[in-house]
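Handoff note, outgoing to incoming analyst
You'll be picking up this chain. Sequence as last confirmed:
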Amino acid sequence: MSPDADRTTPAAGDQRVLLAYFSRAGENYYYGGRRTLKVGNTAVLARLIADRIDCDVFEITAADPYPTDYEQTVARNVREEQQDARPEIDGSLPSLDGYDTVLLGSPVWNVQTPMIMRTFVEALDFGGKAVHPFVTYAVSRMGDVRSDYRRLLPNATITQGLAVQGETVNDAAADAAGWLDSLDLPRK
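Most recent structure output, in case you need it:
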């Protein structure tokens, strides 16, 4: 039996849902090469999800924006990981009061959550919340994201997530719909 098996969530009609995500536009990995995105892959996936369910949306943005250059972003991410940094988030954070469910979206960087996601989750009280991670990735699928959140959010229920390869995110509507159906969240 999984540690989450004994936890229950409210019926779909009773749930309040927050979708919070971090995404980075600019030069991105693309099948071994690079391409420039006007909208980051995770933002595309977040929109696919938000279009299907009744939720509030919060975009997590870095106070010091990540470079648009892919290699510079990779180097910054490595530095942040090595320093166990918590990059500052621009603006005020939402309150989780009144939310039963939080969908957390991000890219997978170096097989784990970007450090800015740690800033976000450590700043808020996720106790008793159902947390559904969704990610975009280049090669690592979900990576260590679920275990990162399990460690960072011990008083929340972390579910199976949705992992979509960044290169295919524009064709991920069916994957997103199937995942959302399994979560029984309130529909629009």
